[in-house]
Amino acid sequence: MQRRLVILRVLLLLPLATAMTPMTAATPDAAPDTASAPIIIAHRGASAYLPEHTLEAKAMAHAMGADFLEQDVVLTRDAQAIVLHDLYLEDITNVARRYPDRARADGRWYAIDFSLAEIRGLRLHERLDPATGQPVFPERFPPDSDLFRIHTLEEELNLIRGLNRSTGRAAGIYVELKHPAWHIAEGQDPIPVLMRELDRAGYRGPEDRVYIQCFEPDTLKRLRDEIRTRIPLIQLIGENAWSPDLPVDFDRMRTPEGLAAVAEYARGIGPWIGQIHQGLDEAGAHRITRLVADAHAAGLLVHPYTLRRDALPEGFADFDALLRFFLVDQGVDGVFTDHPDLVVRLTRGLIGQDQPE
Ligand code: CA
Fold first, then answer.
1. Which of the residues in the chain have pLDDT under 50?
2. C-alpha count within 13 angstroms, C-beta hemisphere, residue 327
């Protein structure tokens, strides 16, 4: 922790990246009550280098020095918690070829329609764009390998426990419940399944280095009020257009009043980066919202998603400029990234600059 605080101090002393045009960023009105350095969250693992949510991608992220490894959780037909980003399987596996007759009417192969044994038999690959059949990120791991499988949450927690022990470095976990309302409508409640897994693996409170994230406020409120978990909760914030069926107004949630309501049950928010930085205006200046400042004023941590070197938003010349904007200028409390090594390297590099030869 001592070292991380030094990193943060050095970060804060440095000027903004010269590659960026002048900023008109809001300064946070009040910092959250934790004075620790920003955390590096490996988004689905080191997913810039290995297919997302593979054990290989998690091991690589651990070795790269990520502070937290992310798990997305959905259930199988036999109520097993697996680590998978989508409700369906066809964008990252060979399910369509293996089980051509088991898509639903919407043309999708849902994980909840398959047993764990069936899902274990699938080959997992780099994410493909369903419209084109081509990789979403063309420079990443080739999609035609036969190497990877989907695994359970229990297996991933075992891997992390083992790596924490063998390396002596305590990486935390950052678990997302995917579409719990949808699961419940399908007859499966993912909340008790998740909480049983976490309890069995010893994740019970903030001292165990664990967060639970979800887009659905009702789920987080239930975890806080009914399950009475001590695990810190993160309210993910999307766009209303992404999930028109969800009874939540993300526009209102981003207002100071909405954020105050979130602070009643959550420790922080996970907005997407476009809710903080909205590109450039006609004069070429950065368009920056007050979201980070307002969330900090409400006492909330801010962990935006997702920083990728190969998908830079408008207005940033390179990945370092993007990182400096969020970590230094905006002062966020953590970042989800596909490139944990580059975030670690940047912060360590900054220390190196500050020290005599
Ligand atoms: Ca996620």
1. 1-35, 351-352, 354-357
2. 32
